[in-house]
Write a sequence for this structure.
């Protein structure tokens, strides 16, 4: 069966591997015959998600509590994905395997991938990601960032050693999503230009904001909007407490900015900052002013978006003027 997979398909599949790695994998694919078919080489959407501040969290928790933390995180992924599977069965019927999205968890990372690149599948993928991100925060106070790219992707079974399971992940979509995810220091799901254009072409209505950071343009699928933070019971309080406990790491401020992005209602913006001051000071600013100082001072730390700092300064100026 060595000729059952064309060299064209194999070279696409093995992107971005090079040299001996690519040749070795391609030879194995050809000689296994039944392990790969032409369908694997279709274009797919791939999402790479992980936990913001994961390394610092593990240092804080230690080994034993760190394991429990990851177990809780993985449990939410499992339950959200199980609900998705059940909803697909209800729509498509018990005897049809119509799940267009699959995935797996590796430590703090989740990889989701589609079986095609049509607009309905992209819509399902985005809905699943938003549900997962919100559920992780609601259940575990975990903030997630990520990216979605489009391209070739495959999971290839590889030879195993005793007690050592091994699997290869190849494809330009995975590499692009992995690289994009780490480039944006905030919550939200960064979209590649191609994915963003697909959303526009399909007329999909999603909460997407555009942001420029260091001369780079980013399209972000937002799951923590200002309305979600202010109107969903307990969510914003939990966000502020998590930020306070972390010492107000930069990604919390950046997440606030993404939530505020494109909001022109000054009342909502004032309410957001006023709620932060109230929660940080435990509703006693004259007594717990040091906590407010930490919030303001760390807003100007390295890594915090300058546009967020501008928003905060505008709020502080208005507060000073209102006291005149």
């Amino acid at each position: 069966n060595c000729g059952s997979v064309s060299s064209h398909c194999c070279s696409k599949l093995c992107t971005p591997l090079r040299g001996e790695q690519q040749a070795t994998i391609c030879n194995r694919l050809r000689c296994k015959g039944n392990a790969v078919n032409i369908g694997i080489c279709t274009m797919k959407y791939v999402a790479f998600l992980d936990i913001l501040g994961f390394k610092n969290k593990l240092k804080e928790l230690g080994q034993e509590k760190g394991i429990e933390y990851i177990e809780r995180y993985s449990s939410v992924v499992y339950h959200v994905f199980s609900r998705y599977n059940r909803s697909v069965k209800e729509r498509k019927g018990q005897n049809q395997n119509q799940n267009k999205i699959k995935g797996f968890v590796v430590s703090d990372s989740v990889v989701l991938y589609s079986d095609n690149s049509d607009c309905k599948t992209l819509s399902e993928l985005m809905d699943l990601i938003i549900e997962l991100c919100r559920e992780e925060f609601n259940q575990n106070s975990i903030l997630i960032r990520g990216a979605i790219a489009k391209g070739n992707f495959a999971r290839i079974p590889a030879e195993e050693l005793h007690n050592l399971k091994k699997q290869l992940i190849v494809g330009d979509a995975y590499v692009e999503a992995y690289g994009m995810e780490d480039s944006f220091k905030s919550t939200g799901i960064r979209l590649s230009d191609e994915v963003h254009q697909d959303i526009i072409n399909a007329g999909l209505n999603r909460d997407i904001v555009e942001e420029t950071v260091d001369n780079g343009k980013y399209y972000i699928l937002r799951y923590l909007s200002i309305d979600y933070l202010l109107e969903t019971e307990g969510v914003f309080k939990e966000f502020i407490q998590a930020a306070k406990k972390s010492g107000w790491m930069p990604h919390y401020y950046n997440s606030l900015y993404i939530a505020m992005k494109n909001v022109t209602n000054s009342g909502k913006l004032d309410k957001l900052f006023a709620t932060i001051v109230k929660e940080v000071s435990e509703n006693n600013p004259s007594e717990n002013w040091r906590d407010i100082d930490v919030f303001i001072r760390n807003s100007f730390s390295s890594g915090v978006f300058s546009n967020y700092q501008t928003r905060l300064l505008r709020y502080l100026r208005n507060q000073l003027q209102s006291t005149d």
